[in-house]
Automatic annotation (TrEMBL):
<dbReference type="Pfam" id="PF13561">
    <property type="entry name" value="adh_short_C2"/>
</dbReference>
<keyword id="KW-0560">Oxidoreductase</keyword>
<protein>
    <submittedName>
        <fullName>SDR family oxidoreductase</fullName>
    </submittedName>
</protein>
<feature type="domain" description="Ketoreductase">
    <location>
        <begin position="6"/>
        <end position="190"/>
    </location>
</feature>
<dbReference type="InterPro" id="IPR036291">
    <property type="entry name" value="NAD(P)-bd_dom_sf"/>
</dbReference>
<dbReference type="InterPro" id="IPR050259">
    <property type="entry name" value="SDR"/>
</dbReference>
<dbReference type="GO" id="GO:0016491">
    <property type="term" value="F:oxidoreductase activity"/>
</dbReference>
<dbReference type="InterPro" id="IPR057326">
    <property type="entry name" value="KR_dom"/>
</dbReference>
<dbReference type="InterPro" id="IPR002347">
    <property type="entry name" value="SDR_fam"/>
</dbReference>
<comment type="similarity">
    <text>Belongs to the short-chain dehydrogenases/reductases (SDR) family.</text>
</comment>
Length: 247
């Protein structure tokens, strides 16, 4: 990748919300690097789809819950491309179960993927960003971190923790003109949503004030906005995009 534009990193960018963020930011003229873990076919297809003359795209395989893998990748990225303009911490998993049935290994896996990874990438890339005097960090949280869901104690805890992370880090780096925000999506129409039984999906959507799921473009558009100069005075915030699910 010959760096002509600002480059941004999207973790977990091969499918779902992450893939839409990659596509949207590439279309907006950013050079986009994203990580994937197991979805290499989807990653290759996405790179082919969004790379063009005005914007370049590349992916790296990385287990974002592994501190050493993240450290090695970040060192390579800074050496190869310089300081990123933005980090979009999107990678996440959910292993739904009632708390009394949740295995400790599942709890730790969720926390490591959803929360620890955000710490790893931010800590490794921030020094380079600080030296540029500008930049953005965005965490893709969830409305589950605000209202809670049955069977998602671990997932909700990991997403709620992102709010505190966002607010504290925003205070730390604001004087360097780096903004830190998070986005809390509600029910978004992805492949994961389609796995729900029809009755369960209908019951879930009935709780949404607008009466329908959101789409991945709704989240990607907010990411693009937060990276732009139009959002230059927004930091430390968790922006809820849930169609009124949490009200």
């Amino acid at each position: 990748m010959v760096r002509k534009n600002k480059w941004v990193l999207v973790t977990g960018g091969s499918r779902g919300i992450g893939a839409c963020i990659v596509t949207t930011l590439a279309g907006a003229g950013y050079d986009v690097i994203f990580t994937c873990h197991d979805s290499q076919k989807e990653a290759l297809r996405l790179v082919d789809e969004v790379s063009h003359d005005n914007s370049r795209c590349q992916y790296y395989r990385c287990d974002v819950s592994d501190a050493e893998q993240v450290k090695k990748l970040c060192k390579h990225l800074i050496t190869e491309y310089g300081a990123p303009y933005a980090i979009i911490n999107n990678a996440g998993i959910t292993l739904d179960n009632l708390l009394i049935n949740t295995r400790s290994e599942d709890w730790h896996r969720i926390i490591a993927t959803n929360l620890d990874a955000q710490f790893y990438f931010s800590q490794q890339l921030l020094p380079a960003m600080l030296s540029t005097g500008s930049g953005c960090i965005i965490g893709i949280s969830s409305v589950a971190g605000i209202r809670g869901n049955i069977g998602q104690t671990a997932y909700s805890a990991s997403k709620a923790a992102q709010t505190g992370f966002t607010r504290s880090l925003a205070r730390e780096v604001g004087r360097f003109n780096i903004r830190v925000n998070s986005i809390a999506p509600g029910i978004i129409d992805t492949a994961m949503l389609k796995l729900l039984p029809p009755k369960a999906l209908t019951r879930l959507v009935s709780q949404v004030a607008l009466g329908k799921p959101g789409c991945t473009e709704d989240i990607a558009a907010m990411v693009e906005f937060l990276l732009s100069d139009r959002a230059r005075y927004i930091t430390g915030q968790t922006l809820v995009i849930d169609g009124g699910l949490s009200i």
